[in-house]
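Quick bug: Heavy metal translocating P-type ATPase output formatted oddly.
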Amino acid sequence: MAQVTVQPPSLRVQKSQEIVEKQSQIIPLVQKNGKVSLTDKNGHSRRHTAQVTYSVVHQIRGRIRLRVPRLRYDADYAQRLLAIVEADPLFTNVRIKTAAAALVVNYKSSSVADAKVRSRLIYLIGAANDMGIVVPKANNSLATQPTEDVENSWPGIQLSAMATSLAVLGGPLGLPIPPLIVAGTIALATLPVFQRAVEGIVKERKLNIDFLDFLAIAITTVQGQFLTPSLMLSLIEIGENIRDRTARSSKLQTLDLLSSLGQFVWVERNGVKEQIPIQDVQRGDTVIVYPGEQVPVDGTILRGKALLDEQKLTGESMPVLKRKGQPVFASTLMREGRIYILAEWVGNDTRAGQSIKLMQEAPVHDTRMENYAIKIAEKAVVPTLLLGAGVFAATRNPARVASVLTLDLCTGIRVSIPTTVLAALTYAAKHGILIRSGRALEQLAAVDTVVFDKTGTLTKGEVSVVRVESLNPATSDLRVLELAAAAEQRLTHPVAEAVIRYAEAQQVAIPNRSKWDYQLGLGVQAEIDGETVYVGSERFLRQQGVDMEPLNGHQPGDSLIYVASNNQLQGRIVYSDILRPESQEVITQLLTVDGVEVHMLTGDNKRTANAVAAQLGIAPKHTHAEAFPEQKATVVRQLHEQGKTVAFVGDGINDSPALAYADVSVSFANGSEIARETADVVLMQNDLHGLLEAIAIARKAKQIIHQNTSIVALPNIAAMFVAVFFGLNPLAATVVNNGSTVVAGVNGLRPILKPSPKKALPSAR
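Here's what came back:
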């Protein structure tokens, strides 16, 4: 992330400051009438010369978050910044989190421009460096301020471990531990269970497994059987902790387009070129884009021409030549040329920004694993309660009731299943597959439809030479390649780079090039071995007077460049975005698994899409061409509405909406930042074989979960039969219940103990 140094005295910031001062008449520095003011003793406004480094993490309408590294180590500076930002009338809410060096502010977007807010913040970040700022007493402690992402870290595991230790010391070991202390510790450790039980009754209007656990813990504690509830609590807390660890480890960021582009943009205003922060670009500005830069806005070319790589936005694998009057789009990469653009849409109003907005509107799921076993356990709650009530009515023995309640399926399932999930996620990570959550693992195991984006996913996403053809009997294919490589060397055009790579792979001796002239969008003229060589489009060669008669009878192709020397056509080079070497194998294996459908989405035309699909064995009815981001998301939604569990595999900004709407989304480590952040599964080795392995790991984990359910259920049901008809000590019931839990938990560790699964998928059934 680019770092920016704030220099408040700069002309731009001072102007922004003066605008805000005229509106608010409040410049924070010293306390006055309950406010903070930035005026000195004479009432004059101060100018600050301090430099403070900051970076913008993200911004949406009404909210902006910045990272200011100084907040982490300078508490006094943090106090001053909090005070002066809170006092500024532009902001409705301010939060500082020193551990993350984060400053988060909210403002009324309807009454103030985003650019003005950002300019004001930049000024205040520098102004807070003034040591003369007096912080109001009410703000003397940042500890009292609300911070973002604060979690209530109740020490459940520690308390349950302490309760177990005290119960062992005061029970089997016979140490004089006051029962009140042990019971009190158990009561504190039970609070999270009690809260979840109450939430189930109040919010979900049902008796959940936590209610059952709470009753068992309460009855055994009242009876003085401290070891039973403390062991039960320990296992519950271990299971909940592991379950939370299988939730998505990094929250989906509030991504916006500006965070993925450069920090500064060149614009031309009143005939003067200046570089400004990207967030300050406005509609109507003339934006200048140079080679190697990303286009920052949607607009129309005013002058110049450029070769633009639109792959991440549109999925088009080949660079596109754009001239005056043609539209260009934000996030596309300038390969060659220089253009002046009339900015028509900026920021999140651009096409790329709308793709991100569509992604953010996708439904958000609980990322913890919600599996069939938990649902089975919850269905057993009411019958277990009724059975316990029946035993009590028949025997009037609370101990037997406690045994019945202890012998539920809940504890074992709540420990063994998260353990299996965590082991599977760990195993996958060690094999180059990042599965972000337990829910993603669960969905992977159930996938019956896989939808692939074409460009960059099934294909390499880069130009590659397919073949070289001589069109002159006196010239060999090798000579055609030599001339083309010599003329194209050191050019940055993707086709030129592909020709050089192909020549090097064929170990061709590339001749020297003397004079040369490259014409953007047409081709190159060069002097090679005393010959005048032309390499480029058919149009370019005809313009140079080359005899194109040898083309008669040759079927033209979509992706060709021609090679001529001394005004004679020598040959042509066919290139395309070729398939990944593993694509066909992966598609074949997916198609051979009963019930799995494979679809392909692409922005290419139907003819190109069908040709690629036929090569891969994908049915025409499952091939979706000319698909923009919104249409890709629609296809995924429609498949989901048909009852299918959909995995979508893609890597570009244009794929992010479809990734967000899929049941499980897959991307590559080298995909766009937005695609990686959206994806539930990231293939770190950028190889589609990882998808097969991920599905195999998920299905194996599901099989182990089935086994664990049996391991937990059978002994507990048998022991419950004994408890109901013959009676069973609560401690013995705990041993059976906890013992089966431990065995199932150890079984759940099998994913990390097994060798790597084969590429072929196990049956889904």
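Actually, after a second look the formatting is fine. The mean pLDDT is 77. Closing.
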